[in-house]
Amino acid sequence: MGENIETVRLGILGCANIARKVARAIGLASNATVCAIASRYKDKAVKFAAENGFPTSVKVYGSYDQLLEDPGVDAVYIPLPTSLHLRWAVMAATKKKHVLVEKPLALHVTELDRILDACQSNGVQFMDGSMWWHHPRTAHIQHLLSANAIGPIHFIHSTSTLRATPEFLENDIRVKPELDGLGALGDLGWYCIGASLWAKDYQLPTIVTALPGAARNNAGVILSVTASLLWDQPNQTVATIHCSFLSHTSMDLTIGGSEGSLHLKDFIIPYQETSAFFDFTFGAKFVDLHIGWNVRPEEVHVATEHPQEALMVQEFARLVATIRDCGSSPSSKWPEISRKTQVVVDAVKKSLELGCKPVYL
Asked: What domain of life is recorded for the organism (predicted)?
C-alpha cells in the first residue's frame, strides 16, 4: 500500500552556529521545511531568519515555550547547550513534538534516559544530530564489514581534533562547565565513540579506560582526552580514541581486521559534499627483502546527491511522517545507538575521575 507522506514541519529552538547548517539541510531535504524559529530574544530570532533566507511564512518566536505551543510544528531541532537538553527535549516530547537533538545529548545517561522515556511515552521519534551516520559512504562500509570483507575486527583507531582559537578556549559554550560540561569528550569524543561502536555493530565494550595525559581548563572542563575501549567477544578488539581542542584538525578512522583494513581521513565531515572516499586494503604483505608492499590501498569513492546533513533530516522526517500519517511506532534504532554512545562517554569520564582506572560495563 502506498504512503501519502506530506512535508514535515520543523521548528528550531535556538540560534546556535550549527543551526545555520541544519537550517540549510532542512531546505535541501525533499520532505521537510522550517516553519518556526525561536530564541530567548526575539530580535536574535528575527536576525537568524533574515540571515538564513527564511520565507516570511516562517514564524518567529521570542521564547521556546511559544514555539512548542504552536500546533503547526511537527518536530523540533534542538541545538541548545547540553545542560538545557533535558528540560527542552522533555518539554517538546510532552507537547508531542518529535525531537532531533544536537550532540552531546546529555551530561550523563540518567539525564538521557529521562529524555528517551519522555519520547517513548509520548510516541515521538528521537534522533541525535550525528550526520556522518547518514552518508552513503557509511552504509557502503557497513556492508563491507557485515560481509566480513576484512575478517574479524581486531583494532579501531579514531581521532576528532580541532585547534581552538584563544577566543574559543575563553568563551565558547563547549568550555563552560555550566553549559557543556563534557567539553571535548562530549563535543568530539561523541564521534569517535560512536564510530567505534558502529564498527562493532553497537556491542558495548567490556572495559573502558581513560589514558594519562588528559588536559582540562581552569574550570575543570576536558580539553583533550585519549581512551581505550576493549571488547572480549566474539573476538578481542581494542579501540583507541583521541579527541582534543588543542590539536590540528583531524577526523581519522581506521578499522583493522585479520584480512584487511579500512581508513577514512574525514569520517565526520567529508572533504567534499558531493563525494567521499575511503582506503580499502586487502591481503597486504611485504615483497621480497621488505622493500615495498605487494598491494596499494584501493581508493573507493562514494557519490551522494545530497549532503549528509540533508540525508539526516530526510531520514528523521521520513520517520516522523510515517508516525504522523500512517500510525507507525517510532523507530528504536536511533535512541538505542545514542544511549550506548552516552554510556561509553560516561565511562571515559568516570575513568578519568578515578585516575585512569578501568571501568567495567
From this structure: Eukaryota
Alpha carbon 36 to chain centroid, angstroms: 24
pLDDT at 297 over 60: yes
Q: Are 31 and 314 in contact (CB under 8 A)?
A: yes
Number of structural domains the chain divides into: 2
AA letter at 53: G
- Residues 188, 320, single domain; the answer is no
- Is 255 part of a structural domain of the chain? yes
pLDDT tens digits for range 85-141: 999 999 999 999 999 999 999 999 999 999 999 999 999 999 999 999 999 999 999
Q: Where are the beta strands (DSSP E) in 84-165?
A: 98-101, 126-128, 153-163
CB atoms within 10 A of CB 152: 12
For residues 58 and 189, membership in a common domain is answered with: no
- Give the span between the Cα atoms of 111 and 107, in whole angstroms: 7
Domain encompassing residue 154 = 133-306+342-360
Q: What is the DSSP track for 58-86?
A: SEEESSHHHHHH-TT--EEEE-S-GGGHH
Query: Going by DSSP bridges, is the β-strand pair 207-210/222-231 parallel, antiparallel, or unpaired?
Result: antiparallel
Does residue 52 sit within a domain? yes
pTM, 2 dp: 0.96
Task: Please tell me whether residues 123 and 139 are part of one structural domain.
Answer: no
- Answer whether residue 2 is part of any domain: no
pLDDT over 70 at 46, yes or no: yes
Tell me if 260 is assigned to some domain: yes
Give the CATH number of the domain where residue 274 resides.
3.30.360.10
Type of residue at 210? A
Strands 32-38 and 59-61: parallel
**Domain check: are 110 and 180 in the same one?**
no
Q: Which residues are designated catalytic?
A: 103
